[in-house]
Amino acid sequence: MSGFHEVRFPDAIARGATGGPGYATTIITTSAGFERRNVNWEQARGRWDVGSGIKRRTDFEELIAFFRARQGRAYGFRFKDWTDFGTPAQVPLGVGDGTARTFQLVKRYTSGGAEVVRTITKPVAGTVRVFIGGVLRQTGVSVSTSTGLVTFSSAPAAGAVVAAECEFDVPVRFDTDQMALSLEHYEHGTWGQIPIVEIKL
Hints:
Helix content is 9%, strand content 44%. It has 2 helices and 19 strands. A 6-stranded mixed β-sheet has the order 1-6-16-19-5-2, with helices on one face.
């Protein structure tokens, strides 16, 4: 049975990853050369190759243990995307209505008048700061590091803007069940490609 392990892929290896967000778009071209583009995914899905991050024998050994513990593609895990792992200051999560006590962490990307809202489900423990009406809330609030849900002991007042900032990981899994290892010499080994892909939880 598949599942998710709340453990992070080794940072030293992740730092050398290549990849990023991707979309699925179907393009239909007419005989006159006009296009119709159908957006299949509203949200991007990340994909990376972390093979270039292996630099030392200790990396090699740690990777083998990590891969075995996740049983290839069976179990998801946390991954730090070094190109995008934090939110700006005080990202709006919603507006209080006097009743709602739970809000979802998000990151907002804006460009040219368009905004994309990304759900953050794996915030890093100790990095989340929550605000109500611009004031830091230090008590009466809890944050789940496994879901990204922010829960208040009492509902924020109607009209109060709830905001937060944090660092976060991406939930991913290996996209292969087979290691392809090569030990070049005692101190250095390689795995040509180590594909990992974002999973939606």
